[in-house]
Please model this.
Amino acid sequence: MTDNFKIISEAFQHAGVDVHTAEYSITGYSLNTNLSFKFSNLDEFLTFLGLALGAENAKAEKISTLLVEAGIDPANFFYVNFYKPKVAEL
Model:
């Protein structure tokens, strides 16, 4: 799993995107971009983000809710399609 995270981190560096500020969508399919990654389950994705599922972690709970709302089983694989944060135009 750590090797997968290294590959993902390198992809972010190559794209010039900070993983902590990147926006993302969670889908059952890949968008076939350089920043589209398959995660085995919710726990693996939360580990990548450095989060743990629990009542004290609102962000992890929100991600879990997003999966369920998208009709994705958190115990099965899914794709996370990252992209650069959008900048508001003036």
About this structure: Residues 37 and 80 are 5 Å apart (CA to CA). Helices lie at 2-15, 42-49, 58-69. The chain has one domain: 2-83.
